[in-house]
Predict the structure.
Amino acid sequence: MNEITELLSEMSDIAQNPDMRLAACLAEGRKAVGVFPYYVPEEIAYAAGFVPFGIWGMQGSVREAGRYFPAFYCTVARMGLELALSGKIDKLSAVIMPSVCDTLRPFSQNFKSARPDIPMVFLAHPQNRKEDFGIAYTVCEYRRVKAELEGIAGVKITDESLADAICVYNENRAARREFVRLAGLYPSTVSALRRAEVLKSAYFMDKSEHTRLLLRINAALCALPHDPQPGVKVVTSGIIADNANLLDIFDRYGITVAADDVAHESRSFRVDTPIKSGDPLTALARQFSEQSDDPLLYEPDLDRRGRRLVDLVLNCGARGVIFIMMQFCDPEELDYPNIKKTLDRASVPSVMIGYDQQMRDFGQAGTSLEAFSDMLRTRLQ
């Protein structure tokens, strides 16, 4: 047990102190590239010798970024720009900026205007990503990103280095998926907050290092006896859910996150890159083409994401779904009514709470989650 506690504490420190982690990385003589959310092929940057460093925004108040974004803008973008304007990413060699939604597209131009001194590598994903022409377009975009990163790093990214990077990332995805499964089985050991911090720490670490630590945690969890207090198991869904005040409510009312459909968490690692696809860039493009059930990606089947959530609930033994709705996220809000109907038809209880990265007081959310937890327990009796 002491080993697990120490490892979880180590990853918690990394998740809570990304500034210190970046400083340590640079002190080792390595360079870092900032990665804005999401679906960025980090393997390309990794193959160039960079440590990809996630920029999902911070928690707190928006000050300087208010000059570029109105108050009704998604805080993933507002806080990301606040990080840039506050000087916290000054030592990054570059940033990679995707454009998979109507918020991120203007975000890239505002960033370019606000911080022209930081090289920005723009990435345009296609919405028609599954057809051959969509894959070909993605390959062209990835090839351009590769060329720009080669110029910044002053190195040539070979197919061999890309293939090695793909293996590193696939191993890390597999380890994170296993951790998510085990964390849902041992909530007495892995609290909701610790679970989120372990997953968040991956954004600030060399993926091979993160995998080594995670494999040790997974092995230690597998050696534990059955958890006598499994809690009320739920599936979470949303963009990001890393606020300690919110997750403390989960632990207070015995709510166990058995699985998730959160962009910051499992959505980012549920699809591996096919390593036997020949050209590594094509393999990465195919990995993106296989992404689905995300409100930011085109999906003609409106019920598909809801069915995925029903399957998650059934497969992990959960009793309900908690939607953590990012305020002012139009794609998530537009998806919600169809998902709610699908869950209702399958008799899966759900609750929705509002969230943004400026929130500190979760009193109303706490009341909703306490009532939801009590209702699920009543259904178990």
